[in-house]
Write a structure and sequence with these properties.
The complex is a heterodimer of chains A (about 775) and B (about 160). Chain A is α+β, with helices and mostly antiparallel strands. Helix content of chain A is about 25%, strand content about 25%. Chain A folds into three domains: about 170 residues, Aldehyde oxidase/xanthine dehydrogenase, a/b hammerhead (Aldehyde Oxidoreductase, domain 3); about 325 residues, Aldehyde oxidase/xanthine dehydrogenase, molybdopterin binding domain (Aldehyde Oxidoreductase, domain 4); about 140 residues, Aldehyde oxidase/xanthine dehydrogenase, molybdopterin binding domain (Aldehyde Oxidoreductase, domain 4). In chain A, α5 crosses α6 and α9 packs parallel to α17. With about 160 residues, chain B is α+β, with helices and mostly antiparallel strands. Chain B has two domains: about 70 residues, Beta-grasp domain (Ubiquitin-like (UB roll), Roll); about 80 residues, Orthogonal Bundle (DNA polymerase, domain 1), CATH 1.10.150. The chains are: A alpha+beta (about 775), B alpha+beta (about 160). The complex binds FE2/S2 (inorganic) cluster (2 copies). One FE2/S2 (inorganic) cluster sits at the interface of chains B and A.
Chain lengths: ~775, ~160
């Protein structure tokens, strides 16, 4: 392929590296009202009284809103297709405060000083209630996070607000109890993962203003313009036709911006005052009032034979959705449906059950990996524990059991695995890290041990039977094309990747395609950039729209040449007769076709395609970590990380590589550093980058990535997703390496030096 | 309220500030929007600018401190940014770009200070520049290919 599978520079690259003002915060009118939010210092409370009149007197204050001022229709901030599986459990502000940080008042004023001053003058009397802070005690707790009568679950997800249940389900195939009873070895272990923050460098922010037509315009750092339009319209109780949402460049998303964290507040201010308004979350707010990964506790049971055949897997997940249910019912599903099918070969039965519970802590949301990350940590670790128990090489154990191309995966909604290079990924990674030499570990002297660990991962590509990818391609003068998309480039490079696909079909240079997105007024509908959907699904929409445009260009060319369209071909530069006829016009240039399309024209030169997919083909990956542990201090360093990815055809190998390296970097953070803990008042201790340590460039070791491509038949170019699958292997691979060095299994993340030291001391007792 | 006079990207500017105004807000107000804020705790490095050619965190410097000094942001280093930035772009490592200006500023400062840094020196010099997208590996490759290019240029002359 000419343009696809080439390491082409990102279209916006030079603007980004030279620091051009292309982000939300760079485009705000200097006269916009400064909007700030007053947050609750209590985890569970009723507002008895709220007094704003003194604060209103501060010069420059434009408006202060409280729960008394907002519409009473509940909604969800989750960016999902309607009807959302997430319950409608929010108001813009509620009299009932549900976590330490919940929103108590919106203050808008001419400048930050005035707003800060006014915030201090708002007097609130709370009736403080007992709070549910431990998610293990949430289900059927007498304290209810959502006792209200107008709480609504739109979808049958097993939710019951009177039991603090956001979702519940049991699924499976085969007779799991009989299979377990028949296995030579059955192990059960419990794992615990924390609420990690996405920690994108650009915090949440939204700018709003009214336009010429009296419509509310929202310029926001979001992955989901169309869902934001619906959410804001519902929250403000105004017609959707009154709302327009656009996104400029986004300073990182990772799923955080798949939740409407900030949009409704300045939108409400602008709608009420008619004035432009801007809300930017501080890092502290982003850490404490954002939408982190769901904390989960997973109990896994594995049944196997002495020869290593894994015959049964059982996963029970307890997921903590926090004070609100955004993405609660859906993230949990991936904690079982992604890891279990990896061991498909001899799997006769599985059971997957879960409870998602409400608690009085920061609401969780979507974070790259979306539940799969947690499930893969648990299942990959128990497989490593099984290997240790069976005294088998964990790579060999995997080779024996992994899913292969052509197999039906009962634990993956019965889908057939039509593209899979997982076996090759495993072999290639083991060879590059020199597994056979380095496994299990090497004593370096002076108390330091080096060891290696392994893990695999799969994800999906779009949400099957749900997501919609949309693309419009348009011919312009001189024969350049405009590609309009509703998907959101958040640094991932999808503007470029989709342009590469368009250029491939149109047989032109990628510079000949201009890209614009996303804007709810102009872009074709697209669910948005999440669920690893854009390359796979929106890519198919691009290919389809371009194919239609090609046909139309041939029609125009044929009409100019006076022949039938069947007699013509198109090579990107011209339409020509397949067999030249002497004395006739045998070709028409693209430029002439573009010109002709603008004079007395009867042919379409703009095509939109919308596509969905009945399947969600999994990309696969293998990661192997080499770590060094200081057994005297517990200190741990990642030295090397080898990874091999099967994302089908990598549309842009450079961008696929950096996605993978970035995902591994984040995964290392999750494995070793990133923690969220709550005080007795429900306040988060890790409320800044001082406490919430994300990896620096000295913490990630050397990451090395290669690709083993399969070809996914349901995608025009054979591509699958890459964005999420890449974050899942570090936690289990590192936990495995740590076990190899210390003989201790760490089943709770992050694996800090303190925990390692304590584990070693306990073992040596 | 007080008047502040300093040189910004080689141009003399004067502006009204408050005693507690931070340099980051003042330069952004003056149109240097490349300067980004990623934290409140001096941890991210996104806000890096030069004061008298030395990199500083503009989020942690009172604007009043730059009275009479030379302040440089990426707006004033467009050529250098484009030259080295092309190498970052060729790795696809610019990603979301939000950390790029601070990273560029410190990388440029490093190239000036130490034209031949070892890998460890690079990692340590830039340790204060966080990036959540790239895993840092592509940034390192871009620096190494850029340095090799600079060397080959010199070799060619
Ligand atoms: S803004 Fe984070 S260090 Fe200055
Ligand atoms: S490129 Fe996004 S934070 Fe560095």
């Amino acid at each position: 392929m000419r343009v696809v599978n080439q390491p082409i520079r990102k279209k916006d690259a030079m603007s980004l590296v030279t620091g051009k003002p292309v982000y939300t915060g760079d485009m705000v009118d200097k006269n916009a009202l400064v909007v700030k939010l007053l947050h609750s210092p209590h985890a569970n409370a009723m507002i008895q009284e709220i007094e704003t009149s003194v604060a209103m007197k501060v010069p420059g204050i434009e408006a202060i809103f409280t729960y008394k001022d907002v519409p009473q229709k509940r909604f969800t901030m989750a960016g999902q297709t309607y009807p959302e599986p997430s319950p409608y459990d929010r108001l813009i502000m509620d009299q009932h405060i549900r976590y330490n940080g919940d929103i108590v008042a919106i203050v808008a004023g001419e400048n930050e000083k005035a707003v800060n001053k006014a915030m201090k003058l708002i007097k609130v009397k709370y009736d403080v209630l007992p709070a549910v802070l431990d998610f293990r005690t949430a289900k059927d707790n007498e304290t209810l996070v959502h006792p209200e009568e107008n709480w609504v679950a739109n979808c049958p997800v097993g939710a019951d607000n009177k039991r603090n249940l956001c979702a519940h389900e049991v699924s499976g195939h085969g007779d799991i109890d009989a299979v377990m009873a028949d296995c030579d070895i059955v192990m059960e272990r419990t794992y615990h993962t924390k609420a990690n923050s996405q920690a994108m460098m650009e915090t949440f922010r939204t700018y709003t203003y009214m336009d010429t037509y009296g419509r509310l315009n929202i310029l926001s750092a979001t992955q989901i313009v169309f869902h934001i339009r619906r959410i804001v319209a519902q929250a403000l109780d105004i017609p959707k036709s009154k709302v327009r949402v656009t996104k400029p460049r986004i300073g990182g998303g990772f799923g955080a911006k798949q939740t409407s964290v900030t949009e409704v507040y300045p939108a409400f201010v602008t709608w009420k005052t008619g004035k432009p308004a801007y809300l930017v979350y501080s890092r502290e707010e982003t850490q404490t009032c954002g939408c982190p990964r769901h904390e989960m506790e997973l109990t896994v049971k594995i049944g196997a034979m002495k020869d290593g055949r894994i015959r049964g897997l059982e996963v029970y997940t307890l997921s903590n959705t926090g004070a609100y249910g955004e993405h609660g019912p859906t993230t949990v599903g991936l904690s079982g449906h992604k890891p279990i099918p990896l061991y498909n070969k001899y799997q006769e039965a599985h059971r997957f059950s879960y409870d998602v519970v409400y608690t009085n802590v920061q609401a969780a949301g979507a974070y790259r990996g979306y539940g799969a990350t947690q499930g893969i940590f648990a299942v990959e670790t128990i497989v490593n524990e099984l290997a240790a128990e069976l005294k088998m090489d964990p790579v060999a154990l995997r080779e024996l059991n992994i899913v292969r191309e052509g197999q039906v995966m009962p634990a993956y909604y019965g889908e057939t695995c039509n593209s899979c290079a997982l076996d090759r990924c495993l072999a290639a990674t083991a060879e590059r890290i020199k597994w056979n030499e380095k496994y299990p570990c090497k004593d370096m002297g002076n108390g330091k041990i080096r060891s290696v660990g392994v893990a695999m991962s799969m994800q999906g590509s779009s949400i099957s039977n749900c997501d919609v990818g949309g693309a419009t391609i348009k011919l312009n003068d001189d024969g350049f094309y405009a590609l309009h998309i509703g998907a959101a480039d958040m640094g991932t490079g999808c503007d470029t990747v989709l342009a590469q696909m368009a250029a491939e079909v149109m047989e032109c240079d990628v510079d000949n395609i201009i890209v614009y997105g996303a804007d709810t007024d102009i872009s074709p509908y697209d669910s948005g950039s999440y669920a690893s959907s854009t390359t796979y699904l929106t890519g198919n929409a691009v290919a389809d729209a371009c194919t239609k445009l090609r046909e139309s260009l041939q029609k125009i060319g044929a009409s100019i040449m006076g022949c039938s369209v069947e007699e013509t071909g198109f090579d990107g530069k011209k339409v020509y007769r397949l067999e030249a006829v002497e004395g006739e016009k045998n070709e028409v240039s693209l430029v002439d076709i573009a010109t002709a399309s603008m004079v007395n024209n009867y042919y379409e030169t703009q095509f939109t395609s919308m596509v969905s997919s009945p399947v969600s083909p999994p990309p696969f990956m293998v990661g192997m970590a080499e770590v060094e542990i200081d057994t005297e201090t517990g200190d741990i360093k990642v030295l090397n990380y080898e990874a091999t990815v099967d994302c089908g055809t990598p549309i842009n190998p450079n961008l696929a590589r950096v996605q993978t390296e970035g995902g591994i970097g984040q995964g290392i953070g999750m494995a070793l550093y990133e923690d969220i803990t709550y005080g007795a008042d429900g306040a988060i201790a890790e409320n800044s980058f001082m406490q919430y340590k994300i990896p620096t460039r000295q913490d990630v070791g050397r990451i090395h990535v290669e690709f083993e491509a399969s070809y996914e038949p349901s995608q025009h170019f054979g591509a699958k997703s890459i964005g999420e699958v890449v974050i899942n292997t570090p936690s289990p691979a590192i936990a495995h390496a740590v076990y190899k060095a210390t003989g201790v299994w760490f089943r709770e993340l992050p694996i800090t030096p303190e925990k390692i030291l304590k584990g070693l001391q306990e073992k040596n007792k | 309220m007080m008047e502040l006079k300093f040189s910004l990207n080689g141009k003399k500017v004067s502006t009204i500030i408050e005693a507690d105004s931070l340099l980051i807000d003042v330069v952004r107000d003056l149109g240097c929007l490349s300067v980004k804020r990623g934290c409140e705790t001096s941890n991210c490095g996104l806000c890096t600018v030069f004061v008298n050619d030395k990199p500083v965190l503009s989020c942690s410097v009172l604007a009043a401190r730059v009275e009479g000094q030379n302040v440089t942001t990426l707006e004033g280093l467009q050529e250098e940014a484009a030259e080295f930035g092309a190498f970052l772009a060729d790795q696809g490592a610019e990603q979301c770009g939000f950390c790029n200006p601070g990273f560029m500023m410190n990388a440029i400062a490093m190239f000036r200070e130490n034209p031949h840094p070892e890998e460890e020196e690079i990692l340590s010099y830039l340790a204060g520049n966080l990036c959540r997208c790239s895993g840092y590996e592509g940034q390192l490759r871009s620096i190494q290919t850029y340095l090799a290019f600079k060397d080959s240029q010199k070799g060619g002359v």
